[in-house]
Amino acid sequence: MGHRREVSRVESFSDAVFAFAITLLVVSLEVPKSFHELTAAMRGFLTFAVCFAMVFQVWWRHYKFFRTYDLEDSHIITLTAMLLFVVLFYVYPLKFLWSVVLAPLEGRTGEGIMTNAQVPALFGIYGTGVTAVFSILALMHRHAYAKRDQLGLSAEEALEARVRVYSNFGVASIGALSILVAFVIGRLAPRLAGLGGFVYFLIGVVEWQIGAYHSRQRRNIQRISKASTAHV
Fold first, then answer.
1. Are 174 and 200 in contact (CB under 8 A)?
2. Most Cβ neighbours (<10 Å): which of 17, 44, 108, 121?
3. In Å, how far are 8, 82, 102 from 213, measured between CA atoms?
């Protein structure tokens, strides 16, 4: 399969939107007028770093899709538009959540920002964004897999597309599970509603399982390929 070499207009537009999303993470910060204000602003570095890493991860998955598949039909353009919309809409909820979570580490107090009763709603907003973003990425790879013959994907490349579907849907399902846990625990014990955030540690488990599946399937494909070659 030949990988795309030229950057398309959709990719260029997407890069501009992701860059704007990164800008929104810091746009509310004014230029410090004193050293005290400078140090106060620097306390938000960790929050910005985490948010930047998360937006970059979404950009990287989107970038790899376009670099891997020479596919830019109306279906992919529509899904890309949906993805960019969600990314822009959820920049502020993303920043707000992590500013609350990291407040103690950044020397800030989180008191008065929100009540325990509002925590499930916050995780609901955040989890909806996670579920939407990674579901869209999964649908993009699913479309590429459906077009595998047209794209001329090899057996291993088709497997990679299928694995990316599983990976992105896996992350999306963790977002949905976090919402469920936050609301259930929030109803039973409001002070423990924040446990919904720990559900995201399951992403590592899901990715590990999918990686193991990928390795097994790839070995099977290579074994079949070698067997076929030996009989020629």
1. yes
2. 44
3. 33, 30, 35
Beta-carbon contacts of residue 78 (< 8 Å; ≥ 6 apart) = none
Q: Which two tokens stand for residue 214?
A: 């990928």
| Cβ neighbours around 7 below 10 Å, total | 13
Integer angstrom CA distances of residue 7 from 11, 67, 70, 199: 6, 9, 11, 37
Closest CA to 3 of 57, 60, 71, 62: 71
Predicted TM-score of the model (pTM): 0.88
* H-assigned helices in the chain: 9-24, 35-42, 45-68, 74-89, 91-101, 119-146, 148-151, 155-188, 202-230
DSSP three-state, residue 180: helix
End-to-end CA distance of the chain: 23
Question: Which of the 8 DSSP states describes residue 221?
Answer: H
Burial class (CB in 10 A: 0-12, 13-18, 19+), 123: buried
What would the pLDDT profile of 33-61 be if each residue is shown by its tens digit? 777 767 766 777 888 899 999 999 999 99
Angle at 58 between CA 40 and CA 88, to 5 degrees: 65
Q: What is the residue extent of each domain of the chain?
A: 9-230
